[in-house]
Amino acid sequence: MKSFLMTLITACLLTAAPITITYAQNFDKAVKAYDPGDYTTAAKEFRLLAEKGDAGAQNILGLMYDQGEGVTQDYVEAVLWHRLAAEQGDADAQNNLGYMYSKGQGVPQNYTEAVRWYQLAAEQGHTSAQFNLGYRYSKGQGAPQNYAEAVRWYRLAAEQGDADAQNNLGYMYYKGQGVPQNYTEAVRWYQLSAKQGNASAQFNLGYRYSFGEGVPQDYVLAHMWFNIAAASGYENALKARDLHASLMTSNQIAEAQQHARDCMARGLKGC
Q1: 105-112, Cβ contacts within 8 angstroms, sequence gap of 24 or more
Q2: SS3 category, 169
Q3: Angle between helices 219-231 and 250-265 (to 10 degrees)
Q4: N or C: which end of the chain has fewer CB within 10 A?
């Protein structure tokens, strides 16, 4: 969460307009406190800005209440600050408020309200909100189930590089939900996601190689991706890997293991 907040803090500073010298100094003071872990001071500084109506600071303060950083964890207070920022049009805050509604944190769970806030953020190009909105459409939560709409929002997020959206878009192509079934396209999106470290996509890609769906059947590459998915923490990957190992020669297994080591050593580049 710290790295995410630091990214958000930097974005707020870059996009805030107009930036006065006083604002920049106050924001800089908050950042310098947050970075080494002095969350109490950071929360106080962000509160000063938030109480003056700064949407970015309001959203950050909401996240700090959500995480209990520098303040006592309080979802109701988190919702309050996210809402103030969201009502000013802050896309990060709109997405965060949608998440609070979807989880029932600080507010009664309400998928309809979640979708409303996700939609506002997604229409501003917010990647996570686009993914979240696609997911709600795919499940029919807060809006009628609509696979075509799910695909539309997943694609927008996937094209911005969101690994979860790429994996889910791959799944929609694999199942033929909202798009004509197309194993080749499914594999293409799984690969993009898998190479970003998405364990579910790595697992899905392993099975596509196992069954030869969208790619030539290849137990070595299937074993490799199951190995990588297991290293990424995917629960069923080891079971799938061992199942495929029973169909392979010892040389093939050794080759797959070497491929997995090489791929992980390269950060999955070129795999």
Answers
A1: 105/66, 105/75, 105/78, 105/79, 106/74, 106/75, 106/76, 106/77, 106/78, 106/79, 106/80, 107/76, 107/79, 110/142, 111/136, 111/141, 111/142, 111/143, 112/142, 112/143
A2: helix
A3: 50
A4: N
Residue 251, domain member (yes or no): yes
Of residues 182 and 4, the one with the higher pLDDT is 182
For residue 169, the enclosing domain spans 161-271
Is 63 in contact with 43 (CB distance < 8 Å)? Answer: no
Which amino acid would we find at residue 148? A
Structural domain includes residue 61: no
Over residues 58-109, the pLDDT tens digits come to: 999 999 999 999 999 999 999 999 999 999 999 999 999 999 999 999 999 9
Sign, CA dihedral 108-137-151-194, equals positive
Place 12 in a pLDDT band, splitting at 50, 70 and 90.
low
Please tell me the total count of domains within the chain: 1
CB 69 within 8 A of CB 39: yes
> Which pLDDT tens digit goes with each residue over 155-200?
999 999 999 999 999 999 999 999 999 999 999 999 999 999 999 9
**What pTM, to 2 d.p., does this model score?**
0.90
